[in-house]
Amino acid sequence: MEEVVGECTLCRKHVFCENGFLNGYILDGLLLCLSCYKSTKQRETL
Fold it and tell me: Mean pLDDT, the chain, as a whole number?
């Protein structure tokens, strides 16, 4: 089962809950899709 829980704060894509698991991240109170989370984390490591 898939349900929209909100939209990514950065790119505005829908973020889903799939079978009880969030398909994204909450970082500093912001909802992020997987792509934006990965690019944010990658910039932090540089």
Answer: 94
